[in-house]
Design goal:
Helix content is 37%, strand content 26%. Helix 1 runs parallel beside helix 3. The protein is globular. The N and C termini lie far apart (53 Å). The protein is built from 15 helices and 20 strands. It has three domains: 232 residues, FAD/NAD(P)-binding domain, CATH 3.50.50; 110 residues, D-Amino Acid Oxidase, Chain A, domain 2 (2-Layer Sandwich); 57 residues, no CATH class. A hairpin with a 2-residue loop joins strand 17 and strand 18. The strands form four sheets. Strands 3, 4, 5, 6, 12, 13, 14, 15 and 16 form a nine-stranded mixed β-sheet that branches. It has 447 residues and is an alpha+beta fold.
Length: 447
């Protein structure tokens, strides 16, 4: 029995689970990673930007691998405020970002996760448990097995696998986390969003010329404005891949349900309206849609997190713990998943050395998270999360900024108005000085 027992079973072959597995393999631990897809990434339709440098910690000098799973590194960042016909962008591009390890990588998850799983297999082959540690795909975990209140393994079909510990990295639909009582069965729609995305393919030279890309440099562009989302709470995004772009929307589920019911539109209609916006249609002209997907994501509100992230013999990592943050500067989720997976594995390694997998020992994972940038951001930037749902920021500010820009950048055969008058006119049309002061104070406190 003991020889068949794993040090750890990881449920989920996404970024959090694979990061935990790679950490365990390098530490010569015996583990089983179970993924319900045919391969890691097979059921993960999302993509976006992996921020930070944790990947270099897991796969040193990953950029030297000609088959590395990323599409491009971020060199160019844009934040665009849009009304119904215009867009005003904060635009930053710097050669500073060209030096590896890169601070941001554009990834397509099906490709990236599969590549990272290959690195896990390589690490297993070099470990002392080359014949015992496993990555098992196409398996659905149906139950977490407990004994005397402690998690001791998992059940998949008729098979039961035992372990000293279990890391749940099952994603946002965290049914196993709910089964063991760490997450409420019902999560209010107020705290969740739907991400809807298309991948649009171009000739590579057309893509690079259109978005001013050089080599593997890439761009991320976020969009703010009610005209972008058909009035639904949320925002838009565009990321450049090697030969395609990922473009889409993140929409609050509660508001989306109410607005779609009133308008009679579908979520796909909303995406098509976004693509038809004057500032977007020129970007995607001539491209071919090769993929469409939608999935649920957390909005970064701490209130949706599980009651706790550990218990006797079990840890919760990544999106299963609803670790995601949209502070307005960036949408962070994959980096949180990677970091939490590493910390979860380190906790298991320490617990193995002590021979103690009780809740008091597993609590070290929570301590590690609280001391990391992940929970420091989650704790410190909740104001920013709530600010992004403010109607003034979503509706008034983009319209005001775009109206100001129209007058400011339009040259007529008449005397020019002072800039203060142009801005004052835009404020009077779309908002008030008092509302702008209020949103300014909120922003200063939030950030």
């Amino acid at each position: 029995m003991e020889e068949d027992k794993f040090d750890c079973i990881i449920v989920g072959g996404g970024i959090a689970g694979l990061s935990a597995a790679l950490t365990l393999a390098k530490a010569n631990k015996k583990f089983l990673l179970i993924e319900r897809g045919e391969f890691s990434g097979a059921k993960n339709v999302s993509g976006g930007v992996l921020w930070g440098t944790d990947l270099n910690r897991l796969v040193p000098n990953y950029w030297e691998d000609e088959n590395a799973g990323f599409e491009r590194f971020i060199k160019h960042r844009k934040l665009t405020f849009a009304d119904h016909e215009s867009g005003f962008s904060l635009d930053f591009k710097s050669a500073h970002y060209e030096t590896p390890p890169y601070a941001g990588l554009v990834v397509l998850r099906s490709k990236f996760d599969n590549w990272l799983a290959g690195k896990v297999e390589e690490a297993i082959a070099e470990s002392d448990f080359a014949e015992d540690s496993l990555v098992a795909t196409n398996i659905l975990v149906e139950e977490i097995v407990k004994e005397n209140g402690k998690v001791i393994g998992i059940r998949a079909g008729e098979d039961v696998f035992h372990a000293d510990s279990v890391i749940l990295a099952e994603g946002v639909n965290n049914l196993l986390t709910r089964q063991i009582g760490l997450q409420d069965d019902y999560v209010p729609a107020d705290y969740l969003a739907t991400g809807i995305k298309e991948v649009i393919r171009f000739d590579q030279k057309v893509l690079e010329d259109r978005f001013q890309l050089d080599g593997l440099s890439g761009m991320s562009n976020e969009f703010v404005g009610a005209s972008i989302t058909s009035g639904i709470e949320g925002g838009g995004f565009l990321y450049t891949n090697k030969e395609s772009i990922s473009i889409g929307l993140v929409l609050g589920i509660k508001d989306m349900r109410e607005k779609l019911k009133k308008s009679g539109k579908s979520i796909y209609d909303v995406l098509n309206d976004f693509k038809a916006h004057p500032i977007i249609k020129d970007m995607i002209k001539g491209g071919e849609v090769v993929e469409y997907s939608a999935h649920v994501v957390s909005m970064g509100d701490k209130r949706v997190m599980p009651k706790e992230l550990y218990a006797d013999g079990v840890l919760i990592a990544g999106e299963a713990a609803n670790l995601l943050m949209n502070s307005g500067k960036a949408i962070q989720g994959m980096d949180y998943a990677m970091h939490s997976g590493i910390l979860a594995a380190e906790t298991v390694i320490e617990a193995k050395e002590k021979g103690d997998f009780s809740a008091s020992s597993m609590k070290n994972y929570r301590t590690k998270l609280e001391n990391s940038y992940v929970m420091k951001d989650m704790n410190n930037l909740q104001g920013a999360v709530h600010l992004l749902h403010d109607k003034t920021l979503m509706n008034d500010v983009p319209n005001l900024v775009c109206d100001f820009a129209k007058d400011f950048f339009t040259i007529k055969n008449e005397p020019m108005q002072p800039t203060r008058k142009i801005f004052g006119k835009a404020v009077a049309k779309h908002s008030s000085w008092l509302d702008l002061i209020k949103i300014g104070i909120k922003g200063a406190k939030a950030l």
